[in-house]
Amino acid sequence: MHIDILTIFPEMFEGPFNHSIIKRAQEKKLVSISLVNIRDFATDKHKRVDDYQYGGGSGMVMMIEPIANCIDSLRQKRNYEEIIYMSPDGDLLDQNISNQFSMCNNLMILCGHYKGIDERLREAYITKEISIGNYVLSGGELAAAVFTDSIVRLLPGVLNDETSALSDSFQNDLLSAPVYTRPSEYKGMKVPDVLLSGNDKEIFKWRQDRAVQRTNARRPDLLKG
Ligand code: SAH
For the domain that residue 55 is a member of, what is the CATH number? Predict the structure, then answer.
């Protein structure tokens, strides 16, 4: 999979993409991620990417030209299944959406700033808009990092234990069962016996029961589906 992320702050991704699972996925060449600086496609000598909004009002708007130039240039090299704009009024990100996008070959993700991007970009270029929650961030970078992480960890070969992602919360509309590691007893608090029993069938059943219980208690809305 290849992901192009269009941003005016490429440095913001250095932390999230250079550690842990995403780092390993890139090293194993299971995903390549390019950070594309929108400013490089600005047309005036000041490399301007934002301007005042028509009709007045506070807050700048990201201009159509640099972003359109950037998208056009990238599209000459690749066929993108989706051009995604991270936006608080987009579809609310969930595991289903991440599962679907993990099957794509080429994705483009656009990060907005200020008041957002010129509406004409959304009409002419954007094929999907995704929100990571009902709150407003200062820019799309953190949202794009969250979205990218949720996709990359699903790519075959990224997680060491192939089945691990399938037992995470939200797969099968269930939250994850509780997990424990050594020691088996800490200050009188014991790990449930069944997990130490070695009986795979019983362990599977216990985990399933606990996942359902937890989902019922915390997220009954998931069970309705
Ligand atoms: N004026 C806009 C908010 C702009 S916030 C509005 O009220 O809808 C600036 C940028 O941050 C947006 O362009 C978007 O790319 C990003 N952003 C903010 N909140 C987000 C969220 N919840 N999910 C995804 N992206 C978000």
Answer: 3.40.1280.10
